[in-house]
Predict the structure.
Amino acid sequence: MGIGELDREAHVPEVTGAAAPRTLAEALRARGDEGLAALLRARPDLLNPVPNDLTQLATRAGTRGSVVRALERLDRFALQAAEALAVAPDPAPYPLLLGLLTGDEGDPGIEAALPDTVGLLREQALVWGDDDRLRLVRTARELLAPSPQHPSPTGLGPTVAEATSGMSPGRVQEIIAAAGLPTTHDPVSAVALLTGLFTDRSRMEALLDTAPPEALTVLDRLVWGPPYGEVTASPAPPVRWLRDRGLLLPVSARTMVLPREVALHLRGGRAHRTPEPYAPEIGVERDYRPQAVDAAAAGQAQLAVATAEELLKSWDRGGPPVLRAGGMAVRDLRRLAVALDVPEETAAFWLELCLGAGLLASDGEADERYAPTPAYDAWLDLPPAERWVRLVAPWLTATRTAGLVGGQDAKGRTLSVLGPDLDRAPAPEVRHRVLVLLATLPPGAAADQGTLLARLRWERPLRGAAAVAGPDEAQWSGGAPMDLRSRLARWTLAEAELLGLTGRGALSGPARALLNLPLAEAAPADGDGGGVELSVAAGRAATLLAPLLPETVDEVLLQADLTAVAPGPLRRPLADALAVLADVESKGGATVYRFTPGSVRRALDAGRSASDLHEFLRAHSRTPVPQPLSYLVDDVARRHGHLRVGAASAYVRCDDDAVLGEILADRRSAALGLRRLAPTVLAAQTDPASLLDGLRSMGYAPAAESAAGDVLVTRADTYRTGPRTAPVPVPDGPPSPDATLLGAAVRLIRAGDRAATVVRKEPAASPTAPGALPRTSAAETLATVQAAAMTGSAVWIGYVNAEGAASQRVIAPVRVEGGFVTGYDHTADEVRTYPLHRITGVAELADDQV
């Protein structure tokens, strides 16, 4: 059934109540308060600022930016319904819209889903009017309707009337004659005859039965779009046959188009090849026992906390410098990736995670560098489960996207980790939605990634294009846009596995508890180290995770090969001390530390004595201290501090002059520029730090000393930035209004609309133009408001405030004295006082408005 037949057969319901709305403003005026609140809740951009009345609200709801944002948030079927209305006559009856979506054969699923979808489009003010006259707002029609510059998403071309608008009347007569239609001297009637032919199924079938097979092949290539095709100056016979009968119409000398009515006939009346009334189901790739999922996720959560701690501890003395354009250099990222034994992409994620949690920042000094913040020390004091929550909760709301690192911005510049231009406003919504979809699966079920991404694309088919094109413009052209939403979803799945929110691809129990955390509550920790208090949901997640994490231990297994094995995560005092005394050799379920002369010297440099180290090892070892380790500590301690280095620019002193002679004789000391000043003192031409490093590379164990001759104790955990706040997420449009704001906004709009549309009694001598302020003399104004105060009636006034802004208001005066009138302002919904000299005029309300 074609458009024309549907239009003729559509049942027009009898209007028994109020007249059908003629404009969107009238349609909004007919809504109740709940309907207005639903519109403002779905499209919060309409509230900024609050419209003065319903006419202004309707105007704002039809602006390009607002309509684009509303279309971006439609699911695929709602968008398909809007696209079908864009190619239907305006207005279109409901049966016509249904026919464009179901086609000739019908579809029970579409018939069941369409009423709710039309209701959704009405609620969001994208469609208005009764079922017999559905209208798509003009801006949405302009965005979705076909044109040579912007092909329709349906693949349909222009109508016959649109395609023949610039054609000569003689050419139109030739077409209808070739199609077997009676000629007419009226071009409008000729176009109507051709349109009637193309929308009549039986006559169209008869016409196509006479077509050459090659002509039908040409139509098959154009029927689902794009409807435009290039032709030569002398087209082939099948194309000429189609052109002569109007089945292809010229839009230029070399381009032909398939008219919309012909395409709909060939499609069986459907506007879309595959309507999708229902969201695709998410497939299950594999099922696991929930206990196995929680165990795997807990192990990854422990590793996530340990990785963040290792990263920040490696920058205790200060991290790499900040680039002039912001961010960290690629070589520094590569160096960190090697230290963490992870790919560079994963290292970038850990850096962005620490930045978002407020644990890492730039120090803001002249020679700007990255370093841990004071919040890092407070974070270290928390139990492991709470430390995990402090990392994950900010990640849920972060708009900074680590997956973009290494890519290029719009100007072709490489995006660096911790640098600018990494914010993507849709990221929090996509992360939250991916986790919520995973939560809809049974516990232990790992989602099939392909079906999960298909579900996300169905829910927001235009969001990927909008994220590339900009915040207010979507890509409506035929080219396939970059699907940022799918990329964000893939990154979310990978990052959730790294964080321990998922185990083996399935959502863990603690993550399910954390999903009850609203996005607004998942705030990063404050920069002063205090942080926000854990919410109920976050606390429940930490409680569920804590029993799954291994118990911390306070002892290690010392071995004769100068290694120590930690059978589990170490408690913080032991872990900090052992990190100074030994080097990490391998990680995993049990961490292996190795003692070396350099690591022992590092502990001695930190102020520990040999006896302190022996006592520390005995206190924290399950087994006796191996003899090789005792010998190593004693040997390094005996030589430690035998040489003293100070600032001359630098000098070396030693009570054993033979040792100094040995250093001078060593060829490796030539670069240090040493010369003997006294039997026990050598002077150097390099700074103390370089001198210390040079002597240590030669196998000596020098110690630095102060100007007073005391040994300097160096500590590795002393440098911190000042208090810093974590990066603030970039909002993805206006925030959703709460119930209080919605109620106040609806009351204000209603009151303003009453003041703008109220019927007034106009003085016969000086009628007021529509929309203009009333004009009365000062005496008439005073007399009218006094009379209204005595009778308790409301009046309509024109008012100009101190800034010169004019407005119309409806007030009920209660007191008039001292040059002021006080009364209840129906527009502002409150009692106000107005100076009489600022009232331009006053008029009584009509009797039916009182």
Notes: Confidence is low (pLDDT under 50) at residues 1-17, 465-482, 517-533, 764-768. Residues 455 and 733 are 23 Å apart (CA to CA).
